[in-house]
Write a structure and sequence with these properties.
It is built from 2 helices and 12 strands; from the N terminus they run E-E-E-E-E-E-H-E-H-E-E-E-E-E. The protein is mostly beta strands. It has a 4-stranded mixed β-sheet.
Length: 202
């Protein structure tokens, strides 16, 4: 049986069908796995499209792991682990979306390859609404290289200020409508992270 790309059963070695605890997937988007809605019982037709809006700076994060120590000046060390992911405010937006909330992100995106990858990852894989996030020509994505050692980390970041402030992009908290003395708006700005260039820690 296959439901929206989610295989609920599989063949055992003996050829008999067995139930699976975790579904297997034939495509990246699984309607069954992404159908959880923690607010389903309280939703109504006049609810806003989004449950939560996040706003801040995005980064392309590169993480080195498995190092014995932080390298000293002039030294090269090889790591046993390497990863990359959307960083900054994208971490919070992704966590909220994976909790089942209809999540929007207001952030400035560049026109480089890093921005293309982050945009595709957040929109298509994490199902985050990017309708209010502009893309700027001739603007590159902020990048952070993180090195993890013994439960701690060190980071180096490069980036530039956006051509315009995020405060001019976010719809704000105005427009809250009330019905029967109760707010019908569920949108909530839960995170705002704008990192000045001179900040070394985020």
């Amino acid at each position: 049986m296959v439901v929206a790309g989610c295989s609920l059963k599989a063949e055992s070695q003996e050829g008999t069908t067995r139930e699976m605890t975790q579904p297997t997937h034939s495509d990246e988007f699984c309607e069954r796995c992404w159908s959880f809605d923690p607010l389903a019982a309280s939703r109504s037709e006049d609810d806003p499209a989004l449950d939560v809006i996040t706003s801040g700076t995005i980064f392309f994060d590169i993480i080195f792991a498995g190092l014995p120590r932080i390298p000293v000046p002039g030294e090269e060390l090889w790591s046993t682990g390497l990863g990359s992911c959307p960083g900054g405010i994208a971490n919070l937006a992704t966590a909220l979306a994976r909790l089942g909330l209809r999540t929007g992100l207001v952030a400035g995106f560049g026109d480089d390859t890093y921005a293309d990858w982050i945009w595709e990852t957040l929109l298509e894989q994490e199902h985050i609404n990017l309708a209010s996030s502009p893309r700027y020509e001739n603007f590159h994505t902020s990048l952070t290289v993180a090195v993890t050692v013994e439960g701690d980390r060190a980071m180096v970041t490069h980036g530039h200020d956006l051509p315009e402030s995020l405060s001019s992009l976010h719809p704000g908290s105005s427009g809250v409508t009330h019905r029967g003395g109760r707010s019908r708006r569920r949108d909530l700005l839960v995170g705002r992270v704008e990192v000045p260039r001179h900040r070394a820690v985020r």
